[in-house]
Amino acid sequence: MLLDLPVLEKGTFYFIKDGESDIILEDKTKRGLEIKETSIDEKINVKADKGMIHDMDGIGHWVPIRWYFAKDSFDLSQVLVHAEAMDEKYTKLRELTCPDDED
């Protein structure tokens, strides 16, 4: 169902898809993570599918997999703000954890 939706924009770490009544922002780094619940994401106040990841101590953390921005409240440019912030966050994280060895 979500796989068949047209892609409006894509970045290194996200897809933005055109749903029937929502613009859907999907985190590529969470692909394959099982959806455990759908609830409101407290940070951006939109509906989100969430999964659970566990840290090295075995503690579970809820993480959003995709967000649903209602088309009657958001347009693509507003969703892109969140998508580009996610891309920037993951790019910085990758640079910190996987620096180039070309020194």
TrEMBL record:
Protein name: Uncharacterized protein
